[in-house]
């Protein structure tokens, strides 16, 4: 990465929903970036002025004193830095729409929740114009934290963008030079966190129905005895040795949920995941628990559906 002091004069925010509004407030009001030195903040949202939501966007833009448009036009041609906060599914269309207005050297920050492959597709559109793509993963919610929500940045210009963001109150952390890696971290985190959320729904609804809600929550206290990352690593490293016993236990757990009137969608899939490992016959013959890296390699190579046919993705582009 090259070191460069950034001083963008025109910032464009694509999308003026919850995320875009938080970014606009942060730049126009909270950080004071918009004051002085002929700086401009421009927002684009196709819903602008349509219905109550669109009218609210227009009112916000008026209060903040920023230019807001419902389409892509020549008012975007002077963009020095772009923040795309539409939706993951719309991110490629937004990049394509903005491409006609991007100049060589313009920084394009993709804050949308996308997969690694989607981020690289977006990057290809942006970089074909000579603009510079930065992969940004928002690791929290704009609601409450505003533009100060933690963010992971990846790409050749990540260091420079982070240095510009930090004095303005943003909370960036540079992950590395490879676009797509920040988005991948967020999506992989979602696999775990949203999975826990779904299991928590099944567990606690059933616990409440049985009058055991507080007791179940209390019995989770042992998890607090170590950092969660260590707890997760322990579960995965012991998976090879104990998948068989846990498989049987989850069948009973599913039965308990059914008896309570809760459909065990997640619990049954958990049982199936454990059963997949059991069927692969990858448990160590000596019954010893291997280190985490060895366990992951054994699972990827020996369990169908866990990536045996794929090589690890490169860390450099």
Give a written overview of the molecule:
The chain has 317 residues and is of the alpha/beta class. It has 2 domains: 10-185, NAD(P)-binding Rossmann-like Domain (Rossmann fold), CATH 3.40.50; 220-302, Orthogonal Bundle (N-(1-d-carboxylethyl)-l-norvaline Dehydrogenase, domain 2). Helices cover 49% and strands 12% of the residues. The protein is built from 12 helices and 8 strands. Helix 1 (18-30) packs parallel to helix 2 and helix 10 runs antiparallel to helix 11 (265-280). The longest helix has 29 residues, at 181-209. The two termini are 13 Å apart.
Structural features:
12 helices; 49% helix; Rossmann fold; 317 residues; N-(1-d-carboxylethyl)-l-norvaline Dehydrogenase, domain 2; 8 strands
- Name the strands of the widest sheet in spatial order: 3-2-1-4-5-6-7-8
Order of SSEs: EHEHEEHEHEHEHEHHHHHH
Q: Quote the average pLDDT.
A: 94
Strand content: 5-15%
Poorly predicted runs of 5 or more residues: none
Distance between the termini: 13 Å
Number of domains: 2
Number of helices: 12
Shape: elongated
Cα-atom radius of gyration? 24 Å
Structural class: alpha/beta
Helix content: 40-55%
> What is the CATH third-level topology name of the largest domain?
Rossmann fold
Largest sheet: 8 strands, mixed
Name given to the CATH homologous superfamily of the largest domain: NAD(P)-binding Rossmann-like Domain
CATH class of the largest domain: Alpha Beta
Q: What CATH architecture label of the largest domain applies? A: 3-Layer(aba) Sandwich
**Strand element count:** 8
